[in-house]
């Protein structure tokens, strides 16, 4: 398939893996954080770690939109869905996220009307089709999904749709990366920068990471070869004693970002003073809300939102996993009390969450998987 | 003296700890799952882990008996196989078929997977007040045609009408009776290490067709459902392979990956699959890429997974290729002894991973 297969070529991967291994200083270990959950998903789905030398450890970062939503916001959404004549809508990934009192699926089983949509425009269509109801779109995601929410709000206004509003939970990536860099318990050697977020915000906002913290960051695409190449580019920077922001994903990400999308965001939304992140706590200026000029489309303005804070379950160590301090399997409840069917923490829900990715795809030591598959290939007469 | 990397010891320690954690998780997974929910959620119907838990905790708990307990596609009673299935698809009509085809083919296939020759079906209809008779005629015409194609007769039935809003147009339940005229009894527990794993054709056509036919995704592709009766194919396999044919499972809800997991758990074996070898049509692959869904988990209605002794694999493949419905059949991997209960995948990219059961329906990813 064009635009896919060329980025998954195993011959090219082997060649890159050789160059990566050659760049690793003997005796040195490297820790790179892939910030974005999409990268985590790619790494596990394609078994990319098989190509990396043992000296390189990939740390899964906080860029999973579902994972960082605190339980209180899930409860708020369920509360909104419980208001008379309200239809709540959100992305499919949100449906299973546990709040203090169950998930959206559970709320539906008890009579709420929470629907899965594929885009905010679908939510607007539901509003158009149900004039007697009020339709709320629970907006989540980093800068990647913000423009589509903002565009939908503009469309609602242009079309004069009065029974639609946004429950805004959009977050921004830079404050989260800064929080991680300032966290004392983590030593990172470089960052695999988010691709889709950067297609909106561009590469310049990351420059402080290279300048002030001396860490290389390479904005990367989402195919496995993209990620391997980014790792190679980070290693090359380290080998040459450079720390810069580089753009591996230039086929999608312009250095200056998408100015039109940024304009639309600035028209509709503004930074919140602070926002709670699951596991990371309150981070200032780390999220967006609807501007006062769009209060008529702001569910938080139209309805009473309890805004209660629900403490994460004691056993849950999502925060440590999101910061990359713990590997998913090092969490006390991983795989036993917390599984994809009974998630305690958000990292176990979304397919982009580090815990779910590790549980579904990686939950087995690589050596044993390799052993079994190599045995199989030999039996088949295929060169592994 | 060579310098030892400072992290070498901690890396080794971590690997040991990881191993311990994974073993603990394996033990937890072998325990009987507990049903935690107070209400039915959509996950309970998706064919993944939640469905299995519901079946174990509620239905097996209440009904358990030697015929039911193996949870095969149908029950084997003497020389007969008996099965039932309900059909609730939205939309009722989709490219390549409708709920009527599914209701006949699905039950025919459940019998065929037991190794039986399907003979008779029952059909129960739950109809919503206001449902167009013309649509009902269309559905029954499809059922008649499908029954004719599968060489079965619909010999008994039932009709109920419920108030508007109490059902979604038309639900159908069929039950089927099949006969054995040979000693072959394929089942999941009969799968053996070394067996070749075959799929009978390109996977995921049905699931993606229905998903696109709902019109919510604004994606258009030239794909039709794969709904088809598989009894002629299974009969050919039984003729060709005899008792070397170990397992037949149709890859419906949850797709090929779910069926493979069920086989591995039932037989205590591992599956090693080559992602490259799994046949997927380009249009299905494209839609799956766009939606962030893995075709291995997408439902088929006319495809099956076959485990056959290695010596008989080529003959089985030839028998499948000789039939129009098995034209795209391919060996996708093998069973092996270790690690029991797991499905391992060699990815097309050249890495390795496991392919576990999903919890619910595969959900499109956000970004």
Architecture blueprint of SSEs:
The complex is a heterodimer of chains A (about 375) and B (about 375).
Chain A: H1 10-23, E1 30-36, H2 37-45, E2 56-63, H3 71-81, E3 86-91, H4 104-109, E4 114-117, H5 120-129, E5 134-141, H6 146-159, E6 164-170, H7 173-182, E7 190-193, H8 196-201, H9 207-212, E8 217-219, H10 224-239, E9 245-247, H11 259-268, E10 269-271, E11 274-277, E12 281-284, E13 288-290, H12 299-302, H13 318-323, H14 354-362, H15 366-380
Parallel strand pairs in A: 1-2, 1-7, 3-4, 3-5, 5-6, 7-8, 8-9
Antiparallel strand pairs in A: 10-13, 11-12
Helix pairs in contact in A: 1-10, 2-14, 6-11
Chain B: H1 8-30, H2 49-63, E1 75-77, E2 80-87, E3 93-94, E4 97-98, H3 99-113, E5 117-128, H4 133-150, E6 153-162, E7 170-179, E8 196-199, H5 205-213, H6 231-241, E9 245-250, H7 255-267, E10 270-274, H8 282-291, E11 304-308, H9 313-321, E12 330-336, E13 343-346, E14 352-354
Parallel strand pairs in B: 5-6, 10-13
Antiparallel strand pairs in B: 1-2, 2-7, 3-4, 5-7, 8-11, 8-12, 9-11, 10-12, 13-14
Helix pairs in contact in B: 3-4, 3-6, 6-9
What does this entry look like structurally?
The complex is a heterodimer of chains A (384) and B (367). Chain A has 384 residues and is of the alpha/beta class. Chain A has a domain at 71-171 and 287-302: 3-Layer(aba) Sandwich (Rossmann fold). Chain A has helices spanning 10-23, 37-45, 71-81, 104-109, 120-129, 146-159, 173-182, 196-201, 207-212, 224-239, 259-268, 299-302, 318-323, 354-362, 366-380; strands spanning 30-36, 56-63, 86-91, 114-117, 134-141, 164-170, 190-193, 217-219, 245-247, 269-271, 274-277, 281-284, 288-290. In chain A, helix 4 (104-109) links the parallel strand 3 and strand 4. In chain A, helix 1 runs parallel beside helix 10. Chain A starts with 9 loop residues before the first helix and ends with a helix. The model of chain A is unreliable at 378-384 (pLDDT under 50). Chain B has three domains: 42-71, no CATH class; 75-179, PurM-like, N-terminal domain (60s Ribosomal Protein L30, Chain: A), CATH 3.30.1330.10; 188-354, PurM-like C-terminal domain (Phosphoribosyl-aminoimidazole Synthetase, Chain A, domain 2, Alpha-Beta Complex). In chain B, strand 13 (343-346) and strand 14 (352-354) form a beta hairpin. The interface between A and B is large, with 76 and 64 residues.
